[in-house]
Design brief:
Blueprint lengths: L17 E6 L3 E6 L4 H4 L6 E8 L4 E17 L4 E7 L3 E7 L3
Antiparallel strand pairs: 1-2, 2-3, 3-4, 4-5, 5-6
């Protein structure tokens, strides 16, 4: 639900969806949670699913991330995702993706 001043309030049973997005000229990279605050608490904002789509919205690839991330950036030169993760403290993470 959208509150006054544009803030968002979630119900404890609401699923957290996409936490971060990035793209290049061929693909969209999306971190996805799918967890509820009721079951996962604050860890519901840590995403262990990386979904890759083409620009037509067709799923191309799925990655299960060993260390969940709450933010990320795609590096085209290295075909890698860099992000801030939780393991159980904040940590910088690098995932190299398949070609």
């Amino acid at each position: 639900m959208v509150m006054e001043r544009g803030n968002i309030a979630y119900d404890r049973k609401s699923k957290i969806g996409f936490c971060a997005l990035d793209s290049d000229d061929k693909h969209v990279y999306a971190l996805y949670s799918g967890k509820t605050f009721e079951k996962a608490g604050m860890e519901s904002h840590y995403c262990e699913h990386l979904l890759v789509y083409n620009w037509d919205g067709v799923p191309i690839k799925y990655y299960h991330l060993e260390i969940p991330l709450f933010s990320m950036k795609y590096d085209r030169d290295n075909n890698a995702i860099y992000g801030i993760g939780y393991n159980p403290e904040g940590v910088f993470v690098e995932y190299h993706l398949d070609d």
